[in-house]
Structures are given as C-alpha cells and as structure tokens.
Write a structure and sequence with these properties.
Helix 10 runs antiparallel to helix 11 and helix 14 packs parallel to helix 17 (365-374). This protein has helices spanning 36-40, 76-82, 85-94, 100-112, 118-121, 133-147, 160-182, 196-205, 216-229, 236-245, 251-262, 270-284, 287-295, 316-331, 337-350, 353-357, 365-374, 382-403, and strands spanning 2-12, 15-23, 29-31, 60-63, 68-71, 74-75. The protein is mostly helical. The longest helix is centred in the middle third of the chain and has 23 residues, at 160-182. The protein is built from 18 helices and 6 strands. It has a 3-stranded antiparallel beta sheet with strand order 1-2-3, with no helix packed on it. The structure holds acetyl coenzyme *A. Acetyl coenzyme *A binds at residues 266-267, 270, 294, 302-309, 358, 360, 363-365. Residues 266-267, 270, 294, 302-309, 358, 360, 363-365 line the site of acetyl coenzyme *A.
Length: 423
C-alpha cells in the first residue's frame, strides 16, 4: 500500500476537505474516508458494501474485469497445476509455499490433529434425522472451543499453527462423520497413510462391507476443487469472519460464523441449488422457459451459478472446473445428462441480451455440483465441501486481521425510524 500524491476534494456542509488516496500494489485506488466523520460530522452510506474496501490484505488478488485470481501473488492456474490442496492451504495461511521440511511438518500436524475428540462423537447422535450437514458442522465447530479451550485470543497458550492445523484437519473428519451418521453407517477414522483429500474420500465412502479404494483421478480432481475454492478475498463469509473475529472471539466461534454465512443460497449454498435447478430444467425439457423466468423481474427465479458481485467476465475458476468436469466424467466413464443441460443453459444465457448486458457469466458453482456428483458426494454435502475448501482462506484472513491493529468492526447507520415527537 502507498499514499499517492493524489487526493479527493469533498465539498460538504459549506466546507471543502481533502481526502487522501491510497493505492494497492496492483494499482487499485481508494479514497480514505476514515477521518471524515470526525472532521465533518458526515458518514458515508454504502449498503452491502458495494463500493467499500474494508481492509488492506496481502492474501488474494481478484480482478473481476479481467478474470484474474491469485493467492499470495500466484495465479490460480499455476496453483491448480501444483495439485496439492494442503500446499495451497499452507501458502494461504503462512504466506509462502512450503519447503519440503515445512510440508512434512504441516502434514504431521494435520495427521496428529485429525481425530475427533471421542466425547464429541456422541453429539452427532442427537441431531434430528435429515438435519442439513452445514447446520451440524457449524454447531460442531463452535463446540470445539469447549473441547480445546486454549484458543481465546487473550489467553491463547496453544501456538496458532496447531490450532489452525487442527481446524483444517478435524473439520474434514467432522464432515465425513456427519455424512456417515446421516446414512446410519459406522464412522470411518482418518488414516495416517492417506493424503488430505484421499483421506476424506476414504472416510466418506469406506465401509466394513464394501472396502473403498481411492482412485487417483478422484483424489486429483478433489484437490483441484478445493484449491479453486480456498479463498476469494472479502466475500460474504470472509467478511463475517473478519467482523466476528474483530471482537476477539475465539477462532472456532469465528469460523463457525463464517460457516453460517456460507450456507446461504446466494453464497456457498448455490452449488446445491444449481443441481436442483438443472434437474428441474431437464425434467421440463425447456431451457428457454427458465432463461425467461430468470429475466422476469416478477419471478423470484434466478439462474443459479450465474452472476457474481466481482466478476464481470467468465469466472476463472468456472473455466477450469468446466474443463476438469468434462475430462473427469470421460476418464471415469460416467454419463451425466445434467452436464449437457448445463452446457445448453450456459450457451442460451451467454447468447441472451439480458445476460450479456449485465455481464452475467457462470460462476464457480455452475459446474462444481456436477463434479461432486461424479465423485459420489450427496447434494446436501456440496456446501460442506465448499466450507472444507474455504477453511484455509478464512484462517488466513483471521490471522491477518488479528495480526494487524484491527479495531472492532462497527459500521454506522442512518436512522430513519420514529423521532421523539412522532411517538
Ligand atoms: N439470474 C438472473 N439475473 C441475475 C442473476 C442471475 N443469476 N444474477 C444477477 N442478475 C441480475 C440482477 O437481477 C440485476 O438485474 P437489474 O440490474 O436489472 O436489477 C443485475 O443482474 C445485477 O445483479 P445483482 O443482484 O445486483 O448483483 P449482486 O452483485 O448483488 O449479486 C449474486 C451477485 C448474489 C452472485 C447474484 O448474481 C446471484 O444471485 N446469483 C445466483 C446465485 C449464485 O450463483 N451464487 C453464487 C455466487 S459465487 C459464490 O458465492 C461462490
């Protein structure tokens, strides 16, 4: 960040004040209004933060106009080639790709922290049948602080590396346990001889009566999916993390808040909704009808997996997933008619004036669900998959936030309710 020899002039309340302009390393400029109220009595109004940078960050760079995504300066396309979610997680949380020795230590930490506390297992028995796994997971993550109480910021006796490795590792175990419980099968323990993604697939699909062996293609594609979802700067759930965390809440409660934000259908819940939408379109056999419904302002229907607050061009993650999706289905000899429906919907939307003029393109969620289906992941687990992948990003933002001089997040408002003389 640098101060540039440029400033904005604001004329307000009969005064003229100079506001400093700051510039990021990629040339993004911002008008610094932090001192505005003190100087003038005015605040700025920006509902839903459409035009507000809430922090400085060194983690992820997104250029929504050009379709660029980089973690710690490295293009997402390069990180996908690396093929290791664990290395990318390390990069996000620590700021550099691990050396072989750092990799070994990190994997060891993930391994030793992968087991669920035995007493926590019983919690899973008491959720109602059919409870959504995202609800179970956010509750269980919050409960972690009761089992591992050393994470309160002011009395943190555990080093951050251990707490963060535990989170990344144990949440994966919890997700698989939640799934096994939901289908009434015995839980499968993590195995130290399997890498992160293979271990997760094994915990999901191994059974005493039908032993599972992880296909390398499946392990590879899960690594790619997780890498692509690992961070996306100040999205809704990450903003929830930074907001809740700024009150110096413990790490687990903070992550649980992010998890709740992610569960919304306009955010991480969209991947599940895409599949439901594609099934509906397939059953109806009329793509045009749904394109028209999405355009109709009197209809609540939106084309799920389309549009993005930041990307005004093709989401670079969607481009990679679309290619991987096709290749994986072919390699595994899986026919999924929903892929063809998705292609048809995409083509119809991209040729339509409504979508063209609004710069609405497929986002990361449009093809993700089809890949998860091909991996055998049930639909109500899709958002959980997103959450597992996003953990390193959330942790990186939390670490960056607590490492800076962050004040508690507390926006202002413009009160429009009753005044005393109206009561
Ligand atoms: N289908 C139809 N119209 C859409 C869609 C869509 N999917 N997305 C945006 N639009 C329209 C809006 O109606 C609006 O039209 P208008 O200018 O005529 O009023 C215009 O495009 C701009 O859209 P906004 O809603 O203002 O865009 P915003 O940045 O607030 O929303 C969002 C972004 C929430 C992602 C939106 O595009 C959407 O709801 N998409 C579907 C849900 C989805 O796929 N979510 C996943 C996002 S990616 C992620 O979280 C990982």
């Amino acid at each position: 960040m640098s101060n540039v020899p440029e400033y904005a002039i604001l004329k307000v309340g009969g005064r003229e004040i100079k506001l400093p302009v700051v510039e990021g390393t990629e040339g993004e400029k911002a008008i610094d209004i932090a001192g505005l109220r003190k100087e003038t009595g005015y605040v700025t109004l920006d509902p839903s933060f459409m035009n507000t940078a809430a922090c400085f960050s060194k983690i992820t760079f997104v250029d929504g106009e050009q379709g660029i995504l980089r973690y710690r300066g490295i293009p997402i396309e390069e990180l996908v080639k690396l093929g290791s979610f664990v290395k990318v997680a390390y990069l996000l949380v620590n700021g550099n790709l691990p050396t072989p020795e750092q990799s070994r230590k990190f994997s060891q930490l993930l391994n030793v922290n992968s087991l669920l506390h035995e007493d926590m297992r019983h919690f899973f028995d008491h959720f109602p049948q059919g409870a959504h796994p995202m609800h179970i997971l956010s509750t269980m993550i919050n409960a972690l602080a009761a089992f591992y109480p050393n994470v309160d910021l002011r009395s943190m006796t555990e080093d951050i590396d251990t707490s963060t490795a535990r989170l990344i590792s144990i949440v994966r175990t919890m997700a698989a346990v939640a799934y096994k419980k939901s289908i009434g099968e015995p839980i499968v323990y993590p195995r130290h001889d399997l890498k992160y993604c293979a271990n997760f697939l094994n915990m999901m699909f191994d059974s005493p009566v039908a032993p599972y062996s992880v296909r390398p293609e499946a392990e590879r594609v899960l690594n790619i999916l997780f890498i692509l979802h690992a961070d996306h700067e100040q999205n809704c759930s990450t903003t929830a993390i930074r907001t809740v965390g700024s009150a110096q809440v413990n790490l687990y409660a903070t992550i649980s808040a992010g998890m709740s934000a992610l569960s919304g259908p306009l955010h991480g819940g969209a991947n599940q909704e895409v599949i439901e939408m594609l099934k509906m379109i397939e059953a109806d056999g009329n793509v045009k009808k749904y394109i028209n419904m999405a355009k109709d302002k009197n209809s609540p229907f939106r084309l799920m997996g389309f549009g993005h607050r930041v990307y005004k061009t093709y989401d670079p993650r969607a481009a990679i997933i679309k290619k991987e999706c096709h290749a994986f289905l072919q390699a595994m000899d899986i026919q999924d008619s929903l892929l063809e429906v998705a292609w048809e919907v995409e083509k119809a939307a991209l040729e339509d004036e409504y979508f063209i003029t609004r710069n609405l393109y497929p986002n990361v969620d449009f093809y993700t669900g089809i890949l998860y289906r091909a991996l055998g992941i049930p639909e109500d687990m899709f958002t959980v998959m997103f959450a597992l992948a996003r953990l390193p990003g959330w942790i990186a933002h939390w670490k960056e936030m607590i490492g800076g001089n962050t004040k508690i997040v507390r926006p202002r408002q413009i009160y429009i309710g009753k005044t005393l003389d109206q009561i």
